[in-house]
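Troubleshooting log. The previous structure file for this entry was overwritten by mistake, so regenerating from the original sequence record. Sequence copied from the archived sheet and checked twice against the printout by T.R.
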Amino acid sequence: MEEEIAGFRLPDIPPVYTTPESRREFLIQNYWTHFDFSDTSLVHKPEVTEQAFVDYVVILPGAEPEVIATGIGNLMRSAAAERTLYNYFLELSEKYLYDPNSPMRNEEYYIPVVEYHLGQSWLPDTEKQKFDYRLKMLYKNRVGEKATDFFITRASGQKIRLYDIDADYIILYFNNPGCYACAETREMLLNSLFIKRLNESGQLKVVAVYPDEDLEEWKKELPIIPERWINGYDAELAITKKELYDLRAIPSLYLLDREKKGACKRWVCSGYYKICKRDLSLLYGFLF
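Regenerated output below.
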């Protein structure tokens, strides 16, 4: 039986798809079958179009990356038939998948959107440059790939390489002094019992990095950083000058494994408690 979600019609899933995985794969790739991409009035019906997009993103986690990329590509390809709707889905993708403050943020899902957009022949040069740069940053420090190495200078003057830090997991925590969201995130990391336990056992190390140049302000906060954390700054300013990491929002956090590979999704605690709490729950689920 065909289903309805806020006026949006889902496709029938053929009975041949019997497992939850196969049913989800079919739905991801055929979700937009009955959506009328020629009806520009749907841009003004967020209860239908935007809600359908949100519901679509909800079913993506856990599917194979190529399945997700195909499904998102199908969406953008269908939307491209009508420029108004295409631009609307481009905006929705940015709002939910790319904006640092989005609780649904997932840059891996956003990459196929940007790749498809860059393939449009009508794209103005200024917009092409914008999305070329965006894609370049999205490709950096991805899940399953080794994070970019850099030197961390501690208050004592000691320099250490990220790659020389020995731990099963590293929480790489980029922060700024005087930043309310950073203080909130720091408290959340401190109050997490499982992070504290892993930190004390040496399995996990929190590496706090200040990427900017006002060292006087940074030094003022030294007393409030836990001694067990590795706390330092980027003396060469390589992170910002060479754009080693995409720090569109501060604080930004990365979870790395022993090989310094991205162990789970890049996550940002952006000052919204519920987002930080959700991300720490995901981290807990990954580690255990």
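Confidence is low (pLDDT under 50) at residues 267-277. Archived copy saved in two places this time.
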